[in-house]
Amino acid sequence: MEYVISLLGPMMGGALVTLKLFVITLALSIPLGLALALMRISRIKPLSSAVGAYIWLMRGTPLMLQLLFVYYALPFVPVIGVRLPDFPAAVVAFALNYAAYFAEIFRAGIKSIDRGQYEGAKVLGMSYAQTMRRIVLPQMWARILPPVSNETITLVKDTSLIYVLALNDLLRVARGVVQRDFTFTPFIVAGGFYLLMTLLLTWVFQSLEKRHAKYEA
What compartments host this protein (predicted)? Predict the structure, then answer.
C-alpha cells in the first residue's frame, strides 16, 4: 500500500497532462465539429464536398499517424512549414481528428429533425440561422448526447497516444516507473485513474440525458 501511495504523486502529474489535453481538445473540437456539420449540409456543393473529403480523411487514417504527421511532417509541407512544440502539436492533431467525428454526429442529429419544423419556422418568418439556433440545435443536442458521450469517453483513452511525442502523460509516467521498478503495479494504478475519469464522465452524461428526458416528457 505504501508503494501505491508513493506512486500517486507522479501519476497525478501525468494525469494533469492527460486532463489538460482532454479539456482543450473538447473545447476546440465541439464548436469546430458543429461548424463542419453545418458546412457539410450546406447547399454549396464545393464547400460540402470539401468538408466531406476532410471528414473522410480524418476518420479514415489513424490518429497516431495524424499525430506524427503534425509533429514531424508539417514543418516540411510547402507554404505551411510550421514546426509546433510537442503539446500544441498534440492539441492540433486531436482537435482536427475529433472535430471530424463530432461533425458526423452533429450532422446526423440535425438531419433527424423533422422537415416540418423548418417549414413551420419559415411560416413564422424566421431566417435559416434563427431556425437553426432556436429550434433545430436545441433538439439536436438532446438527441446526440449518447454518441457524444461515447466519443468523449474514447477521447480520454486516446490521450494515451501522445506517448509517441514523449509527453509525460499518465501512461508514459506509468511506463517509466514500470521500467524503473520492474513491477506492473503502476499500470494498475494508471488503469484506476482512467477508470475514475471515465466514471465521472459517464455520470455527467447520464445526468444530462435524464434531464433532457424529463423535459421531453
Answer: Cell inner membrane; Cell membrane
Region label for 114, one of left (φ > 0), alpha (ψ between -120 and 50) or beta (otherwise): beta
Please say whether the beta carbons of 141 and 135 come within 8 A. no
Query: Could you write out the DSSP letters of every residue in 66-96?
Result: HHHIIIIIGGGSTTT-----HHHHHHHHHHH
Pull the grid cell for residue 61.
487514417
Rg (the chain; Cα; Å): 21
Which grid cell sits at 41?
A: 449540409
Separation between Cα atoms, residue 72 and residue 75, nearest integer Å:
7
| Helix (H), strand (E) at residue 179 | helix 170-181
**pTM for this structure?**
0.89
Torsional class of 62: left (φ above 0), alpha (ψ -120 to 50), beta (otherwise):
beta
Diameter of the chain measured on Cα atoms: 71
pLDDT tens digits for 159-206? 989 888 878 888 888 888 888 888 888 888 899 999 999 999 999 998
Structural contact between residues 143 and 112, judged by C-beta atoms closer than 8 angstroms: yes
Query: What number of other Cβ atoms are within 10 A of residue 175's Cβ?
Result: 17
End-to-end alpha carbon distance in the chain? 49
Q: HEC string of 20-56?
A: HHHHHHHHHHHHHHHHHHHHHCCCCHHHHHHHHHHHH
